[in-house]
Amino acid sequence: MQYQIELMEIGSIAIFAAYNLVLYLQVRRKYYLYLGLLSFFIFVRATLVDDGSMVFYSFFPDFSLEIGRKIEYFSSYIGSPLSVLFSMALYPIGWLKKYVKGFVTIAGLFLLIVLVTPYNFFYHTLGYYQIVILSAYVLMYIILVKAVKENKVGAMYVLTGTVLCFLFVIAELLKISGIIFIDAGPNLVNTGFVIFIFFQSVALSEIFASSFKENQELNKDLEKRVDEKTSEISRASLLRDTLIRIVSHDIRGPMSNLKSVITLTREDQVGIEQIKDFMVTIDKGVDHTIQMLDELMEWGHAASQNKRIEQEDILLKEIIDPVVSQLTPNIEAKELQFSVVGDVDAICKFDRNALKVVMRNLISNGVKFTEKNGEVKVKVEKRSNYILIDFIDTGIGIPPEMKENLFEMKKDNKRPGTENEKSSGVGLFICNDLITQNEGTLTVADNPDGKGTIFSFTLKLVQ
Fold first, then answer.
1. What pairs with residue 378 in β-bridges?
2. Cα distance between residue 56 and residue 58, in whole Å
3. Under 8 Å between Cβ of 410 and 403
């Protein structure tokens, strides 16, 4: 029965050694290598030890006993440094490295003595090497207790297995020394190591599961980053296409007109009065082009890969008042009733430049598409955790077919104002994009009073 138990122990150790060595070849984690080698040498020792089954000699009866003793002692001695290296690789401690290095050097000297000296000499080193074994356990306890205190994954299992293994090894050493007498039962070191294997298996399983979970989180994070990078590339492509379209159509036109007037003037083909008429048209075209370039530059700056939206706390009044002042000449020219009502002293979280562009566009649109003596109102309302801003006008409204793609960059979105003011067709697209980047929403609806339009967008409220 004892023989069968020892064979089961030896088989378990051999399987565990092979498993960890193969695992090391796959993942290249040093603690798998050290545990695999430790298991291998314990397996070798278990087949050679006197008070064990001596399986090795059953298969090789003519094998040199002198060499067998060397292998047995070498396998016993190397277990201590490998155990310490395993613990250190699993839960490294910076300040302890020099002590571990010194310990491994001393253990290495004992291993060298076993290799180069005869049995009747290195046999006497066993008593001294027991100090090395005890030192190994002290180092392991320092490492593992610290790991347990820091709640490292699997540390409690490794410590428990080490303590139990230590108790069996001490019992074996006492038995060998004759201090205690155990007449029956398998080799205690083998039994202790099987117990050690069990707890290390549980610990490594927990570590593996934790690593698998971390890899899943890393994969999710990687997918998120890939999505963000793809979005950035799409935005860069969209920016490029928008700029090409604007430059080729909306900016090239006014520049061509200006070039034609210059040519006609230089060749004396037009009179002074005609030139004045041309200049009025060109002046409006240049103003429109400059405004469009300002909007595109603001949007392009926010849409580029090198700059992200930078949200900050903003007092709405600080943005609204300058924009209204800038558009006052247009408002007065149309004799509009213009007002800003509500919680203008509310503080929002938004990108400052983006908010200027959005405010200027939406107020300008209200003015542009409202007839003379009409009304344009900006209404600010604080809600539970956000701010709602309505831009209400009594203008010409928006045709139903245009609403479907109103916030997209389409040619059909371009139409003149009530006083034939020019439109780029990209203003609402830019507004929607900037609002979306600031985690808000832009919507449009018919004015319930029967005429005009209401544009609404949300901002984060700073309590």
1. 340, 391
2. 5
3. no
277-286 contact pairs (CB < 8 A, 24+) = 281/257, 282/254, 282/257, 282/258, 284/422, 285/253, 285/254, 285/257, 285/258, 285/422, 286/254, 286/258
| CATH class, 309-463 region | alpha beta
pTM of the model: 0.48
Tell me the percentage of the chain whose pLDDT exceeds 70.
Answer: 76
Using one digit for the tens of pLDDT, what is the confidence trace for 201-251? Answer: 788 778 777 776 777 777 777 777 777 777 666 666 666 666 666 555 556
Residue type (1 letter), 395: G
Please state the domain extents for the chain. 2-217, 309-463
Interaxial angle between packed helices 65-90 and 97-116, expressed in degrees from 0 to 180 and rounded to the nearest 10: 170
Given a contact cutoff of 8 angstroms between Cβ atoms, the answer to whether 173 and 128 are in contact is no
3-state secondary structure of 233: helix
Please calculate the CA angle 317-437-303 and round it to the nearest 5 degrees. Answer: 105
How far from 97 is each of 84, 146, 201, 232, 454, CA to CA, in Å? 11, 14, 25, 46, 71
Tokens of 144: 């593992």
